[in-house]
Amino acid sequence: MRLSPLQSDGNFQTVLLFILDGLANAIDFLFHFWMGRVLIPADFAVLQTLNSIALVYVTASGVFQPVVGRFVAEARGKGQSDLIPAIFKPFLRAAFWLGLILSILVFLLSNFLAQVLNLPNWTIQLSAALIFLSTLRPIAAGVLQGQERFIAFGFTRLALSLGRILLVFFLVQAGLGLTEAVAALPFGWLVSVICAFLFLGKALWKKESLPDQNLLREGWKLSVYALLAYFAYMSLTSLDLIWVNRYLSGDSAGAYASLVLMRRIIALLPGVAVTVMFPRIARILAEGGQPHQSLIQTAAIILAASGALTALYFIFADQLITIIFGHAYQTASSLLGWMGIAMIGVSLSSIWLNYYLAEKPMNFVILLVAAVALEWSLLNVLPVSMNNAVLAFGATGWLLSLGGLVIYSFKLK
């Protein structure tokens, strides 16, 4: 069976997106592994805690991307590509002011936030720039996704990782410390934002036609649901590290931070698979169909890839922790495989997160908020230890995945 030129181009771009995203993640993890080697465990725990908190906001601010991407794709499908600037500019203006206001608030409240999170005050102040920049990029990325320009989309992600590690490379010559490592986080976002807007070109800045007000209202409604869902989801993946950083010693917190970093590797392939799944699910639902096959295929990819990697974590835990982080982190090696199992449950729940954002998100958003409350309750009820942090994280993730399946089953009935 011969593929049409459109199908062939789509498959080529999908494969290249996997490659670009994989390369970006490899560089990103190289940055964090490198920091684990050059920083003392206590400073590494600070960097990873700050990065985890930043990921919560980055994921939350990313709610604009699927909304803009969906509307851009619909405009193209209806032969109304001239409306794309009218979709792009209002969301960009909103993101600009939202990011600016929040970054100023973070800077002004840095002392309070530093005390709550048990982090140095200056790390919060530097992160204010990251807040602003990471609010802008989802708008440009949403347009690229909606235009199905996945190669350019992948390069914006790669630019973030390259900018971050190149800055650190040059700062190493000047004697890298925690300050320089933290400064690399917003710098990477600056490079990525510049790259994304360069890819958009000049056409989007022309005078736009009047947007469909109903479409914009629907977009804001969906953005609110996505904001709640993304914030809850990323909080779920960060609470355990924040809890460990508050109640365990600096060395123990550093060891647990290495586990958190290793579990993110397991989430890499699901992230790309769900990115590809989302527009397909939205199209099938718009056509009145049932996306059983897409859901099953995505779950199978996650189980196969994550399960294989988790098996390696069980077999080579000591070697992986020692080679990547060093002997100072060896206390975490016995938990590496179990952290992998915990992360599989959370990765499967990301399927439902994206599915319900494409359908009716309210019920799953409520379930997500309940999951965050459950994890925090478990962390505060169980005795303080790294083992129980992994247990609370894993139990919550698997229960969330099962809950999404239950909601889906009731919907079918």
Low-confidence stretches: 1-7
**Number of E-type strands:** 0
Q: Structural class, please?
A: mainly alpha
Major pleated sheet: none
- Globally, the shape reads globular
Helix content: over 70%
Q: Rg to the nearest angstrom?
A: 21 Å
Task: Provide the succession of SSEs.
Answer: HHHHHHHHHHHHHHHHH
Strand content: under 5%
Number of helices: 17
Description:
The chain is mainly α and 413 residues long. The protein has 17 helices and no strands. It has helices at residues 5-38, 41-61, 64-77, 84-108, 110-117, 121-146, 150-172, 178-200, 213-236, 239-247, 250-266, 268-286, 292-315, 317-324, 336-358, 362-381, 386-412. Helix 3 packs antiparallel against helix 9 and helix 10 (239-247) packs antiparallel against helix 17. The two termini are 37 Å apart. 46% of the residues are buried. Mean pLDDT is 83; it is low at 1-7.
Task: Furnish the topology, listing elements before pairings.
Layout: H1 5-38, H2 41-61, H3 64-77, H4 84-108, H5 110-117, H6 121-146, H7 150-172, H8 178-200, H9 213-236, H10 239-247, H11 250-266, H12 268-286, H13 292-315, H14 317-324, H15 336-358, H16 362-381, H17 386-412
Keywords:
413 residues; mainly alpha; 84% helix; disordered N terminus
